[in-house]
Structure formats: C-alpha cells, structure tokens
Design brief:
Elements lengths: L1 H39 L4 H14 L7 H13 L6 H23 L2
Helix pairs in contact: 1-2, 1-4, 3-4
Organism: Sphingomonas sinipercae
Pfam family, one: ATPaseInh_sub_z
InterPro entries: ATPase_inh_sub_z (IPR009945), ATPase_inh_sub_z_sf (IPR038293)
Length: about 110
C-alpha cells in the first residue's frame, strides 16, 4: 500500500505545483497587460506601476478573464485611447506567452 500512497502524494504535489505555476503566470500576465495599457494611456512610471497592480487585483472579482478585459477596456476608453475588445484580447494572449516564458526562466535559474 505504501507504493500507492507514495504515488498519491506525488500526484498531489505535482497538482499543487501546477496550480501555483498557473496562478503566477496569470498574475504576471495581468501585470504585463496593465503595463501595456498604462503605456497606451501615457501614464508616468509610478502611475503605470499602480495601474498594473490594479489590473492584477481586478482579476479576483470573478472567475475567468472577463473582469480584467472589462477593466482595461473601460479604462482605455475613458482615457480616450482608441481600442476595442479584440485588441485587448490579443494583447492578453501575447502577455500570457511572455508571462509563461518569464516564469519558466525564473524557475530554471
């Protein structure tokens, strides 16, 4: 029975690790998206940093990406930046790839 217990513990540890990695990648992606949007709104470095943190926090409102997209789209529109949901979704996907690369590089060092 210990062999099964060992396998179960190994699967649980892998699952926990994978979930932590997903969380870190999504948080990094949202931060990168916030920085991208901050540049489009011509925010100062401090304002851009604060805005990126706000975008990360916005993801905790509901499951999925819709809360983040809604926030960024609304903020860009209010700032007079010409954009649409498709552009934000495309940026979100690009930032996801970038975030995954950054997290993987950081864990391999």
């Amino acid at each position: 029975m210990t062999q099964f217990d060992d396998r179960e513990r190994a699967f649980e540890a892998k699952f926990a690790h994978d979930e932590e990695m997903k969380f870190r990648i999504v948080a990094r992606r949202n931060r990168l998206l916030g920085e991208w949007a901050g540049r489009k709104m011509d925010l100062s470095d401090e304002e851009k940093d604060a805005y990126a943190k706000d975008v990360v926090r916005a993801d905790f409102e509901e499951a999925g990406d819709e809360d983040v997209i809604r926030k960024v789209l609304g903020d860009l529109t209010n700032a007079g930046v010409e954009t649409d949901e498709a552009e934000i979704r495309e940026a979100l996907e690009q930032k996801n790839v970038e975030a995954r690369r950054q997290i993987i590089e950081a864990t391999n060092q």
